[in-house]
Request: fold
Amino acid sequence: MSAEPVEQHNERERYEGVLRFYHLAKHQEWAVRDLPWEQIPAVPEGKGSPERQARRRDIWRSVVMQQLQADMFACEMASQLLTAAPDHEARLYYSTMVQDESRHTEAWLKLIAQVGGEGERDPYLDQLAHMFLEADLLEEKVFLMQVFFERLIIPRFRLIARSSRGTVLEELCNRLAVDDGIHHGAGMAYERVLLENASPKVRSHLVDAANTMLPIFAKHALWRPKAREMIGTLMETRDRERLHADLQHGVRLASSLGLDVSEVRIPAG
Ligand SMILES: [Fe+2]
Ligand SMILES: [Fe+2]
Reply:
């Protein structure tokens, strides 16, 4: 018997982590029609005068709009990853991520239609999307999108869910927190494989990319459309503290991938 099958087996073993997330993604798969569309309100309903109610609806509309924008960008990013990844296991996994992100987009589109339609775009999210989509290296795309972005937005879903109890929005955010946990975990597993043979040049390129991305992410997290300017000021101190903790966590993740993060600068927020 030749040694080849053994080598092939060892080669495939490197992808076990990624494959595990493929099975997890299949197991967690859900459908937009599973959400309780007709049974509970889409977003929290306002009390008081019609003006007050309209103001509240505008606030929720801006929350939904920002997430719709994020998931439409995630659709593009996931299809890029699917086509750019050369490995069979990674492609299998990304085929599920493409479906997840397009399912998320469908749910946000249905929600936004119920709260007055699309509104103001977050300019920093557009900047992030541009940077991720234009990145040259697969290592960089996985690093920015899955190691950082997918992980950094999970606390935002939990926050939105906490403030929208008993609504479709809450249910959706809970499902998205689980899905994005899988997207992040799969990215960590794949990035580990990709970095096994990465040159010092590629590694330092990733640190540079993190330094470009983190300040824009900070601006995105603190950005408030006109509808939310008022509550924006009220929540700012807490938001800045939370953001700082999240960004520090992102840097720890990078160092767990063996990247020298001593040069990663955490923006003050
Ligand atoms: Fe998503
Ligand atoms: Fe995602």
Observations:
- Residues 12 and 101 are 27 Å apart (CA to CA).
